[in-house]
Amino acid sequence: xxxxxxxxxxxxxxxxxxxxxxxxxxxxxxxxxxxxxxxxxxxxxxxxxxxxxxxxxxxxxxxxxxxxxxxxxxxxxxxxxxxxxxxxxxxxxxxxxxxxxxxxxxxxxxxxxxxxxxxxxxxxxxxxxxxxxxxxxxxxxxxxxxxxxxxxxxxxxxxxxxxxxxxxxxxxxxxxxxxxxxxxxxxxxxxxxxxxxxxxxxxxxxxxxx
Amino acid sequence: xxxxxxxxxxxxxxxxxxxxxxxxxxxxxxxxxxxxxxxxxxxxxxxxxxxxxxxxxxxxxxxxxxxxxxxxxxxxxxxxxxxxxxxxxxxxxxxxxxxxxxxxxxxxxxxxxxxxxxxxxxxxxxxxxxxxxxxxxxxxxxxxxxxxxxxxxxxxxxxxxx
Lengths: 210, 162
Prior knowledge:
Chain A is of the alpha+beta class.
């Protein structure tokens, strides 16, 4: 893809992601029995080189859950948490207040599984509307500098494109002030498919940046 | 004295007392060239081993690839006044941040970046005098051009020098 998305395409993407996010928020709300707020998704279009800046401080410590998107579209789903948010969320999931800020194996596992469920809810709502089939890989967790975690994803994208689309949705567990970000990063080819399925794909599908 | 920051898929060369850094290398590899007499240093933050099998339009930035970034770094540092005979190299990064997804280390992009850098340096007869690569940790690197020491900052190991 050569050009930035046009307004219709951005709106369409925001729309479909909002629906997915709504479903995901409902799932999370039921799991935690807490009120969840979601923000309007942001559609960020960036060169590969500048994409790290969208995640804020490259050296900030994050706990990230990473899932590969498979099926009719491929890409990545990423939840980068600040440590305090990850710890609070784990505390809620396991029904106890965390005393330390180190996640045990079981706590890591709880976080990974929860995010897999959330991703499933998010994707199934989108898939239904798009009449596409989405699958996710098993989850992986990394705790390190945000920039180092993201560069892996950007490297993969850079083989096919010089730009990347990051669709970001912010969740808040209202009473607990837990902040979570959901990043949906489709491959450029898959993005074209998604836009086509929504009838706004004119300059997206298949066109390379020649 | 300034510290020049090199971002992903960029490179730069500096003269002492200016230093040069790049932040949060994951699978990317940071390649440092240093010339001890002229006190000149260069740093590249490369993403992929080379641009083979990639579309022409995605190959226009030499700093993106290990091979072409080392060539360019060498040209630029010599242009700045370095003597090729005294140039030495250090590399850092090339981690595999999600080892449980990519189990086979030989396939990890980080490992391939490191291998490509070593091969290229050998071809150009630039001695690789130190490295801090692999594992699954992110690294920030800062070259001190007055000494040639490379400071490596990570969350797990704190600060160390090579």
